[in-house]
Amino acid sequence: MTSFGARLRALAPRGHRHWREFSWAQFVSLAAVCVLAGGLFAFARIMDEVVEGETHGFDQAILLALRNPADRADPIGPLWLEIMMRDYTSLGSHAVLGLMGVLAFGYLLLVGKRLSAGMLAFSFAGGMALNSLLKFGVARPRPDLVAHLVEVHTASFPSGHAMLSAVCYLTLGALLAGVVPARRYKAYILGTAIFLTLLVGGSRIYLGVHWPTDVLAGWCLGAAWAMACWLGVRGILLWTQRRGGQGV
């Protein structure tokens, strides 16, 4: 027995249903453009402040707030929280993200989604290259205010873990959300991607290996890069579909 809502949807004019689908697609694309523009703007502002040394007070206050005032090598909270943060931060490492990228790339090729596979590879490789160039160009030292709870070797700005986790999880989230039918599934997938991105970046601050503005900048630029790649592949996909292309 069908519900009253289902009957109404069945009676709705075909053009009205198409208009609703079109409006949702346009809304998603507009949201991606806003994230792209807002992320680039925020990153540029943060980098400008960092280069001029105007974020030191903000960065210092947050790092000190996360440490025992009597011992800056001791983070606030129980020991299990520190252990969990050490584990969580690995979710943004090159090894973990690279492995996830390779597995996702292989799957996309197996199901014939060559364009999506290419976008995934470009997004990952481009994000890593961009992060390395920025670290080399800005050359910001790691925090020396508190003890580092994990080993680090590269420059501090922008956070590679924060930026690359945003690139990886948001790109994968956008691809997965595009193939599930219900909006609640899409919301869950994207929400999970955002949560993992925030968790990885937050762990870097807690462990004392990044200034907070390093992480904020990494989030902004990573999200912008992921949305730029997604918009690019979406535009190519729509153009190809109009021409009757397959396997994209």
Shape: elongated
Assembly level: single chain
Number of strands: 2
The helix content is over 70%
Radius of gyration: 21 Å
Please work out how many helical segments DSSP would assign.
Answer: 9
Overall pLDDT confidence: 85
The structural class is mainly alpha
Please give the order of strands in the largest beta sheet. 1-2
Succession of helices and strands: HHHEEHHHHHH
Distance between the termini: 39 Å
User: How many separate domains make up the residues?
Assistant: 1
Can you tell me about this structure?
With about 250 residues, the chain is mainly alpha-helical. The chain has one domain (about 25-240). About 75% of the residues lie in helices and about 5% in strands. The chain has a two-stranded antiparallel sheet. Strand 1 (about 65-70) and strand 2 form a beta hairpin. Helix 5 (about 95-110) packs parallel to helix 7 and helix 7 (about 160-175) packs parallel to helix 9 (about 210-240). The longest helix is centred in the N-terminal third of the chain and has 38 residues, at about 15-50. The protein starts with a helix and ends in a 6-residue tail after the last helix.
